[in-house]
Amino acid sequence: MKIKLFLCFFWSLWISAQDGFVLENADKTVIKFKLINNLIFIPMNVNGVELTFMLDSGIAETLLFSLENKEVDFKNIEKITFKGLGETVSVEALKSIKNNIRIGANFSDTSHTVFIVLDEDFNISQDIGVPVNGIIGYYFFKNHPIEINYLKKTITVYKDSSKFPKRVKRYSEFPMSVEMNKPYMFADVEMKHDKQSSKLLLDLGNTDSVWLFPILIQDFVYNRPNIDDFLGRGFSGDIFGKRSRINSLSIGNFKLNKPIASMPDEFSIQHLKLVKDRKGSIGSEIFRRFSVIFDYSGKKIYFKANQHLDDPFLIDGSGLEIKQDGLVWEKEQVQVQTAKKNSAGNEINVLDNSNNFQYKFSLKPVFIVSGTRKDSPAQKAGILKNDELVNIDNKTTKELTLSKIHAILKTTTSRKVKLEIKRNGLPMKVDFILEDPIPYIEE
Length: 443
Prior knowledge:
By secondary structure, the chain is mainly beta.
């Protein structure tokens, strides 16, 4: 999965004075969310229009970059420029103040600032596989404790910490700092044998396990094997670096073995404004293994392990970069059913044996190869950018989601995968072996 870090390093020169969300007339409220590739998507009503936003603790501001043919009335607009992470320096946007945002029945902000990204190419919907209108960060978390239950796919907003249920005693509590409107904690990073207590950004918008900044870590040595890889897309361009496995990441007594670490190169972070002593990030591949409570006001974070704590850390074994390239109308043949009565006089539906058929049309996704990792199985098999994926292991891709495709291609062992593709409209069949390119090697 290579959406990894869309905006999680976003920083702004225009930190606004808005007050954030308020819980109205209740001790708590529950918000349902969708979980796609470990990322959290919540419904948000913006100035009376229903939209979908990604929840990302790794950004300061609320960003909107797509309306998917919807119309929202934004007022009090000014043009600005901000900086991000990537190969260029600045991105143009519009700043709109005093917007009315509502999430669920009781959680709202009547004077919310939204940054509207003007770059039409920056739309993460094609990387997620569902329409996404924007990203919300700090102001969602600012005023109230937020509990995220990955198993139930619910967010519970509490009025304050005194309203926590008794079961919070089963959580492990850790200190957390909030700096430049983003949360940080210390965790133990063990590359091979020696643990180092490291200050890490708590980043719900990063689909990886761990990010480390080699240039900021004294005497850093890359674990072997490692691969050069595309790590994600930031506001200002593509982000490149290396991936390898580390021995462990420990959060208190929770030890996560052999997680995959992504390490952006120094060019990708040269324009990044870092807080003091930061060494990297903890991403959502870690968070999904817990229920988590963020308490910005109390400067604490709570973890409770769920059933996924000991899941293996998988990596795409194909080397394919895939995006959803819109939807197409697909004609499907449906045999006609007719209504008849049985011996009891009850009406039943039966298939018409006269070979009469009707056709229905439905929207189906189209998946395109956006690139391949150097020396990967997919590249060696000859798959090229802009090839269309038609079938994977006898499963038609039009019946899959982008998330399900990535799940098929993830592995820690070697196994064969069969693909059908179209190149310039011509069908082709390709077979190759999925391989973990970065198995952990004891030394």
